[in-house]
């Protein structure tokens, strides 16, 4: 297993020297959220991770409530990565973050399990079309009860399942902790499952 963290502007300015010194080998970096919102720290995080020799992956937090929303989100991700020069050979993959951490989907009428799966399918297929490894991020509840993962063409799974000694579901990336402390800052900790 290869140790990593995931980062967004919610982590503030990341001390990449400290991250590298902590034995972190890769970073999953949020590109944005919703249809066109760029993460304020995206470019700084990409440059910081790459300049310290870390591999990077990309994730996008979905607010999709319709197939049109999902199409716009996926197009935004590809456009941003293209503009940043982050071709498929430069990233571990792109993961579509499918959860409802802030209750937005619930407040706006949670889409059906099939609809949520369809949104993931739209994004994953768009990423594949552009040559990227593609996947979905979710927790075990979403994997088992909110998505039909078997309909997603064998895409990669980034599983959020902290507090276990190993993931209960086969996954490409395992988010094992929400409390990885590095130089006094808290990150989500991940393992690339090799």
List the helices and strands and how they pair.
Layout: E1 2-7, H1 16-21, E2 26-33, E3 37-38, H2 42-51, E4 55-61, H3 67-84, E5 94-97, H4 104-107, H5 113-129, E6 134-139, H6 140-146, E7 156-160, E8 173-182, E9 185-192
Parallel strand pairs: 1-2, 2-4, 4-5, 5-6, 6-7, 7-8
Antiparallel strand pairs: 1-9, 2-3, 8-9
Helix pairs in contact: 3-5
Describe the fold and architecture.
With 194 residues, this protein is an alpha/beta fold. 32% of the residues lie in helices and 29% in strands. It is built from six helices and nine strands, in the order βαββαβαβααβαβββ. It has helices spanning 16-21, 42-51, 67-84, 104-107, 113-129, 140-146; strands at residues 2-7, 26-33, 37-38, 55-61, 94-97, 134-139, 156-160, 173-182, 185-192. It has an eight-stranded mixed beta barrel, surrounded by four helices. α3 links the parallel β4 (55-61) and β5 (94-97). It is globular. The relative contact order is 0.17. The mean pLDDT is 97.
Short description:
This protein has 194 residues and is an alpha/beta fold. 32% of the residues lie in helices and 29% in strands.
What is the helix fraction of residues, given as a range? 25-40%
- Order of helix and strand elements from N to C terminus: EHEEHEHEHHEHEEE
Mean of pLDDT? 97
Number of strands: 9
Uncertain residue segments: none
Query: Rg from C-alpha positions?
Result: 16 Å
Shape: globular
Quaternary organisation of the protein chains: single chain
Distance between the termini: 5 Å
Biggest sheet: strands, sense, closure?
8 strands, mixed, barrel
- Describe the strand arrangement of the main beta sheet, using strand numbers: 1-2-4-5-6-7-8-9
**Number of helical segments with 4 or more residues:** 6
Structural class: alpha/beta
| Fraction in beta strands | 25-35%
């Amino acid at each position: 297993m290869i140790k990593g963290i995931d980062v967004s502007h919610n982590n503030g300015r990341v001390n990449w020297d400290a991250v590298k010194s902590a034995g972190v080998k890769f970073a999953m970096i949020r590109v944005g959220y919703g249809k066109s919102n760029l993460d304020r720290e995206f470019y700084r995080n990409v440059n910081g991770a790459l300049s310290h020799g870390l591999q990077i992956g990309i994730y996008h937090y979905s607010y999709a409530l319709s197939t049109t929303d999902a199409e716009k989100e996926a197009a935004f991700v590809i456009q941003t990565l293209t503009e940043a020069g982050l071709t498929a050979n430069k990233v571990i993959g792109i993961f579509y973050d499918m959860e409802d951490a802030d209750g937005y989907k619930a407040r706006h009428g949670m889409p059906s399990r099939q609809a949520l799966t369809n949104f993931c399918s739209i994004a994953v297929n768009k990423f594949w079309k552009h040559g990227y490894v593609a996947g979905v991020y979710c927790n075990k509840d979403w994997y088992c009860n909110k998505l039909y993962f078997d309909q997603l063409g064998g895409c990669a799974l980034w599983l959020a399942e902290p507090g276990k000694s190993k993931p209960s579901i086969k996954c490409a990336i395992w988010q094992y902790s929400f409390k990885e402390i590095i130089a006094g800052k808290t990150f989500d900790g991940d393992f690339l499952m090799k």
